[in-house]
Design a protein that fits this description.
With 468 residues, this protein is an alpha+beta fold. 36% of the residues lie in helices and 21% in strands. It folds into four domains: 92 residues, Uridine Diphospho-n-acetylenolpyruvylglucosamine Reductase, domain 2, CATH 3.30.43; 119 residues, Uridine Diphospho-n-acetylenolpyruvylglucosamine Reductase, domain 3 (2-Layer Sandwich), CATH 3.30.465; 113 residues, Alpha-Beta Plaits (2-Layer Sandwich); 80 residues, 2-Layer Sandwich (Alpha-Beta Plaits). It contains 15 helices and 18 strands. A seven-stranded antiparallel sheet has the order 15-12-14-13-17-18-16, sandwiched between helices. Strands 5-6-10-8-9 form a five-stranded antiparallel sheet. The longest helix is centred in the C-terminal third of the chain and has 19 residues.
C-alpha cells in the first residue's frame, strides 16, 4: 500500500508517542478497520491506533493534527451508513479498548462509562443493580456505547422510552486539535449555556472523539409481557398499529415484519413463526403486574378488532424469547437471500405508515427489486431493505433509494431515525434540509474542526477535504 509522506511521518510519531503495540499497520488490521456494516466504498487506512486511555486519544489526535492527517474514530463498526468507513486516506482511532464501566450512581440515577463498553454488557450491569438502560439497538451484543452516542442509536424500545440522546446527561470528548471538552451535567436538570451535549450526540464522529459518557439510568420495570399478532397483509398490520396508539395504549415497542421478512425467517428457522404468519407484529408492554394485565387485555382486544388472524401472549422469559426469535434471526435470514443488502432507515409520521408501505411495494414492483421491510412500526421507523445480486442491478437500486427518500419527505418524514447519515445518505440531505441549514451545520463543523480532518466526507454533502 502506498502511504503518503505525511502519513508515514504521523505513523512513526504515533509509535514513538504511544508505543508500537498501540499502532497497527498490518494488512489484516487495516482491512478490518476500513469498513463497517454498510456497502460504502472504502480505502485502507494508513494505520489503526488502539488507545487505552483518554490521554492516548488526545495524544493521537494531536499527532495527526500536527501532520494534517485525517482521522476516523471507530467503535465496533456495526454502523449501516458508512459512518466509520474509511473513504479517504486516514488513520483510524479504535476506541474499543476503553471499555470500563467506571461507576453506577444508583441514588442519582446515572452511570459513568468508557465509550468502548459493549451496550449489551452495560445492559447486564444495569440489570444486576435493578436498573434499566432503555436504548437497545439490534446489534447491542456487539456495538459500543460510544458508537451508539455518535449515531444517536434507538432500537425497539424507543417508542416508550426514547433514543440514546434522551439518556446522555453529559460527556468528555477531545477535538481534532487534542483539546478536551467537558459538556453537560450529572444532575437531573441543567440549562447552563448552549446544549453542546445534544450537538455532539448524533454527530457521527465528525466533531469530537468521546472519551467518557455520563448516562441516565432508570428503575427497571418489574414485569414485561410480549404479544405476537399475525395478519393476512401488511396493510392490516399497519392499521392495527394506528388503532393501538389511537386507543391511548403506548407499548414499549411495536415491531413489524412484512411478508418477505416472514418468508425469509421461515426459510431460516421455521419454528420461530406460527405456520399461518404472513405478517407479524411483536408488541411488548411493561410495568407492574396489574398494569401489564390491563395493557395485554386492551391490546388484545384492539388486535382482534383489527383483523389479526392470531394473537399469542408470553408471560415468562422462555415464551418471550420464543416470540422474539423471528426478529432475532431476521437480519441473517435476509442476508442469505442475496449477495448485496442495503437497509434504509426511514421515519414517517405514524399516520402515514400505511401510505409509505404502499409506496415501498410500488417502488419494488416498478424497479423489479426485492424490498423486505421491517422495523419499529410504533414510532414510524421502518428499515426498508434492498436485495440484489449483480452489478447491473445497481442502477435500479439507486433509483429505488431516491424514490423511497422522496416519498418519505413527501409524507413529512425524515431520512434517518437511528442509523445516521454517514456517507451513504450524505448527498440526499438536501432533500430534507435547506441550503441555509446545511451551511449552518458546516460552520459548526469547521468551528470545531477547522481543517476538516475529523471523519471527513461524512454527514454533510460535498465538503472538500482540505488535506487531500
Amino acid at each position: 500500500m502506498m502511504v503518503r509522506r505525511e502519513h508515514a511521518r504521523a505513523v512513526l510519531a504515533l509509535e514513538q508517542r504511544l508505543g508500537e503495540s498501540s499502532v497497527r499497520t498490518d494488512e489484516a488490521a487495516l482491512v478490518a478497520a476500513s469498513r463497517d456494516e454498510s456497502e460504502a466504498d472504502v480505502v485502507l487506512p494508513s494505520a489503526v491506533v488502539v488507545p487505552r486511555t483518554s490521554g492516548e486519544i488526545a495524544a493521537a489526535l494531536k499527532v495527526c493534527a500536527e501532520f494534517g492527517v485525517a482521522v476516523v474514530p471507530r467503535g465496533a463498526g456495526t454502523g449501516r451508513t458508512g459512518g466509520s468507513a474509511v473513504v479517504v486516506d486516514s488513520i483510524v482511532i479504535d476506541t474499543t479498548k476503553l471499555d470500563d464501566v467506571k461507576g453506577i450512581e444508583r441514588q442519582d440515577s446515572y452511570a459513568v462509562v468508557d465509550p468502548g463498553v459493549v451496550t449489551g454488557v452495560f445492559h447486564e450491569r444495569c440489570e444486576g443493580e435493578g436498573l434499566f438502560y432503555p436504548p437497545d439497538p439490534q446489534s447491542s451484543q456487539w456495538c459500543t456505547l460510544g458508537g451508539n452516542v455518535a449515531e444517536n442509536a434507538g432500537g425497539p424500545r424507543a417508542l416508550a422510552y426514547g433514543v440514546t440522546r434522551d439518556y446522555v446527561l453529559g460527556l468528555r470528548a477531545v477535538t481534532m486539535e487534542g483539546e478536551e471538552l467537558v459538556v453537560g451535567r450529572r444532575t437531573a436538570k441543567g440549562v447552563t449555556g448552549y446544549d453542546v451535549t445534544s450537538l455532539l450526540v448524533g454527530s457521527e464522529g465528525t466533531l469530537a472523539v468521546f472519551t467518557e459518557l455520563w448516562l441516565r439510568v432508570i428503575v427497571a420495570p418489574p414485569v414485561v409481557r410480549t404479544l405476537l399478532a399475525t395478519f393476512a397483509s401488511v396493510y392490516d398490520a399497519g392499521r392495527a398499529v394506528e388503532a393501538i396508539l389511537r386507543a391511548g395504549i403506548v407499548p414499549r415497542c411495536i415491531e413489524l415484519l412484512d411478508e418477505l421478512c416472514c418468508a425469509s425467517v421461515r426459510e431460516t428457522d421455521p419454528a420461530s413463526l406460527p405456520t399461518n404468519a404472513q405478517v407479524v407484529l411483536i408488541i411488548e408492554v411493561d410495568g407492574d403486574e396489574a398494569r401489564c394485565d390491563s395493557l395485554v387485555e386492551r391490546t388484545g382486544a384492539v388486535l382482534d378488532e383489527s383483523q389479526a388472524t392470531a394473537v399469542l401472549v408470553a408471560k415468562h422469559g422462555g415464551d418471550r424469547e420464543r416470540l422474539w426469535a423471528a426478529r432475532r434471526v431476521l437480519s441473517r435470514a435476509l442476508r442469505r437471500r442475496a449477495t448485496h443488502k442495503l437497509s434504509e432507515d426511514i421515519v414517517v409520521p405514524r399516520s402515514k405508515l400505511a401510505l409509505i408501505l404502499d409506496d415501498v411495494r410500488a417502488i419494488s414492483e416498478r424497479e423489479g427489486l426485492v424490498m423486505p421491510t421491517y422495523g419499529h412500526a410504533g414510532d414510524g421507523n421502518l428499515h426498508v431493505n434492498l436485495l440484489w445480486n449483480t452489478p447491473d442491478e445497481r442502477p435500479r437500486v439507486d433509483r429505488a433509494i431516491r424514490a423511497l427518500f422522496e416519498q418519505t419527505i413527501l409524507h413529512g418524514g425524515t431520512l434517518s431515525g437511528e442509523h445516521g447519515i454517514g456517507v451513504l445518505k450524505r448527498d440526499f440531505l438536501p432533500l430534507e434540509q435547506s441550503p441555509a441549514l446545511i451551511a449552518a451545520q458546516r460552520a459548526i463543523k469547521l468551528a470545531l474542526d477547522p481543517r476538516d480532518l475529523l471523519n471527513p466526507h461524512k454527514v454533510l454533502p460535498r465538503i472538500s477535504h482540505r488535506a487531500c
